[in-house]
Amino acid sequence: MARYTGPKSKIARRFGEPIFGPDKVLSKKNYAPGMHGNNRRRKSSEYGIMLAEKQKAKYTYGVLERQFRNAFNKADSAPGITGEVLLQHLESRLDNLVYRLGIAPTRAAARQLVSHCHIVLDGKVNNIPSCFVKPGQIIGVRERSKSLEVIQDSLAGFNHSKYSWLEWDASAMAGKYLNMPERAEIPENIKEQLIVELYSK
């Protein structure tokens, strides 16, 4: 299963944002990586800015180029604003929703939980992180996995009311995907219009 396995702090420092979750290195070195990262003042081209935004979105949601391009093509052919639909599609991935529900501390951890068959979708085990979840479906923790330390630690103190498009049932350790979020409800710092312009060239 293809996924990014390189240095995450280096990528986070490139964008100046903790896109993989809390990052100790970024908090200490909030500048670009490399020998001259702290002194670099290079001006990016218009294309470079658009490309960087696409790369940031890819790393944020943990998808590779082909998956991202496929997501864009689906968004482009769907009704609505292409950039917003693209983010809604990425938010609807099973691994992202496991992360949003607080079952995992990061998207990478959520992906691993899904891949290792700890997550059920509508009561059935689903081990495909990129699976598209439809509004109304229920994501839960497999019965024998509910005592896993990583899941218990992640859920402890998690604020389940911060995402209005999700509903959490603590007793069942399951959440319902109520509806696709509006753009204003998606907290990621991504300028999706730049991605649309990049693919339109």
Walk me through the topology.
Blueprint: H1 8-15, H2 24-28, H3 46-61, H4 65-77, H5 82-91, H6 94-100, H7 107-115, E1 119-121, E2 124-125, E3 138-141, H8 149-155, E4 166-169, E5 174-177, H9 192-200
Antiparallel strand pairs: 1-2, 1-3, 3-5, 4-5
Helix pairs in contact: 3-9, 4-5, 5-9, 6-7
Describe the structure.
The chain is α+β, with helices and mostly antiparallel strands. The protein has helices at 8-15, 24-28, 46-61, 65-77, 82-91, 94-100, 107-115, 149-155, 192-200, and strands at residues 119-121, 124-125, 138-141, 166-169, 174-177. A hairpin with a 2-residue loop joins strand 1 and strand 2. It folds into 2 domains: 8-89, Ribosomal protein S4/S9, N-terminal domain (Ribosomal Protein S4 Delta 41, Chain A, domain 1, Orthogonal Bundle); 94-179, Structural Genomics Hypothetical 15.5 Kd Protein In mrcA-pckA Intergenic Region, Chain A, CATH 3.10.290. The longest helix is centred in the first third of the chain and has 16 residues, at 46-61. The protein is built from 9 helices and 5 strands, in the order αααααααβββαββα. Helices cover 42% and strands 8% of the residues.
List keywords for this structure.
9 helices, 42% helix, 2 domains, alpha+beta, 201 residues, five-stranded antiparallel sheet, globular
Query: Major sheet: order of its strands?
Result: 2-1-3-5-4
CATH class of the largest domain: Alpha Beta
Order of helices and strands: HHHHHHHEEEHEEH
Mean pLDDT: 87
First-residue to last-residue Cα separation: 30 Å
Q: What's the helix count?
A: 9
Please provide the count of β strands. Answer: 5
What does the radius of gyration come to? 18 Å
Task: Note the overall shape.
Answer: globular
CATH architect. name of the largest domain: Roll
Q: What do we call the CATH homologous superfamily of the largest domain?
A: RNA-binding S4 domain
Approximately what portion of the residues adopt beta-strand conformation? 5-15%
